[in-house]
Amino acid sequence: MLPAGLDRQVHDADVLAILEGQDRTYFPPGSAYRYSNSGYALLALVVERASGQDFPAFLRERIFAPLGMATAVAHREGHDTVAHRAWGYSQAGGAWVRTDQSPTSAVLGDGGIYASVDDLARWEAALHDDRLLRQPWRGLMFAPHTATDEPDVPHYGYGWRLNGDSTWHSGESIGFRNAIVRWPRQRLAVVVLSNRDEPGPYPLALALGRLYGAPAAGAGP
Question: Where is the Beta-lactamase-related domain (predicted)?
Fold first, then answer.
């Protein structure tokens, strides 16, 4: 849906403008499932309107700082720097070339956050208690709100893929792939961050989890 001849990066507000130009949806709301990055961009705009803050400031003050995520930042070119950052790479013509920013890399509702493994470990730990969200709101994230036909995703929660005893999500941008898999009953989580476009990290996260006693994918309690 990106405009032809686009010569700049789009931001969350641009996503709203693009959606406003559409005259139909893929299916009637609530009748089927399709993963939507655009939905997360809209949620970032909702957060800004409700909080009166820009989205990066909200994340910094309400999530990153309270949890001690010292190096995490919702990155905006020209507004901040990312210390000790990794650059993204993609394979082209038999060689690895730097491919670090795409036209959609500046959309922050669905990505654009730079964080270390230590930062993400702190964030994951907070999902076990009330530091970020109290019950019943926290439980809603991991409730099976809709069924899907995607492999390893029998149900989708609020921002989490649910597969038996595990909850997980993956993400990618040009030159980057990542995955986090959680086994809450075992208090086990695996985070894989990669600054290359292949291979996908989800199978590696499952394999690492098995080394520490994680149940097989899809296994229930």
Answer: 13-203
Strand partners, 169: 180
d(C-alpha 27, C-alpha 39), whole Å: 15
Do the beta carbons of residue 195 and residue 88 sit within 8 Å?
A: yes
Residue 108, C-beta contacts closer than 8 angstroms, at least 6 positions apart:
11, 12, 41, 44, 55, 56, 74, 76
Of the pLDDT bands very low, low, confident and very high (cuts 50, 70, 90), residue 159 is very high
Q: What is the phi/psi pair of residue 87, to 5°?
A: -95, 150
- What pLDDT, in 10s, does the model give residues 108-152? 999 999 999 999 999 999 999 999 999 999 999 999 999 999 999
Q: Which of 121, 117, 118 is nearest to 192 (CA)?
A: 117
**What is d(CA 136, CA 130) in angstroms, rounded to the nearest whole number?**
10
d(CA 40, CA 107): 9
On whether the 12-211 domain is CATH 3.40.640.10, my answer is: no
Q: How many residues are present in the chain?
A: 221
DSSP 150-219: ETTEEEE-SS-EEETTEEEEEEEETTEEEEEEEEGGGTEEEEEEESBS-S-SHHHHHHHHHHTTPPPTT-
Distance, in Å, from the CA atom of 164 to the CA atom of 112, rounded to the nearest integer, reads 29
Residue 81 CA to residue 117 CA, distance in Å, equals: 18
